[in-house]
Amino acid sequence: MSGSIGATTATTTAGSTRQGSTTGLSGDFNTFLTLLTTQLRNQDPSQPMDANQLTQQLVQFATVEQQMNTNQTLERLYGLQQAGLMADAASLLGRNVAVAGDVLPLQGRTAQVNLPAAGQARSARIEIHDRAGNLVRRSDVSLERGASAWAWDGKDQRGAQRADGPYRVSVSGRAADGSAVAITSSVTGRVTGVGREGTELMLRMGSSNIPITQLRDLPQAP
Q1: CA-to-CA distance for 185 and 152, rounded, in angstroms?
Q2: Class of domain 96-214
Q3: 203, 215 in Cβ contact below 8 A?
């Protein structure tokens, strides 16, 4: 998984989508009711509507009404759930949290990559790229007995200081013989805001936007 790179404006489209669906269903419901009453009003008294046919239409009528009520209930529950998630996310403001993905936020000339304990993999190769895909920094780090972290000071291979912002990071494990081994890593960043992109709740870390679903660890004290 990967978060959005660069500053983005979070927009909410879920509400408009649900509203459009409910409006469409309501329109179908009203159209159905109008057609049924018109049919009953204009039917030939000598050849009234078949009772079975009328029953089937009334069942359809009740089904549409029930579906409308269900959609409205689900919409209310969804709204409550989203409000709760937003409140939870707001409590993370100003705190450092670990998130999965390949977005590494450089904030205040510092960034952190979290590494697992040594196992089959004895070391990790960390590569950082800019938004254009250019290699900025590469580092080989020995894994420890327990989980550890590698801090990046924002300097590239030549020692030049890079600007704060989102970078791409890849972490690959290395066995004792140098062969590649898959490992799981995460990054730590400070939450500076919360917002939405479509229907997804996002954590902002400076100019980086990362889905809250990628949150991995409980926040550390600021």
Answers
A1: 15
A2: mainly beta
A3: yes
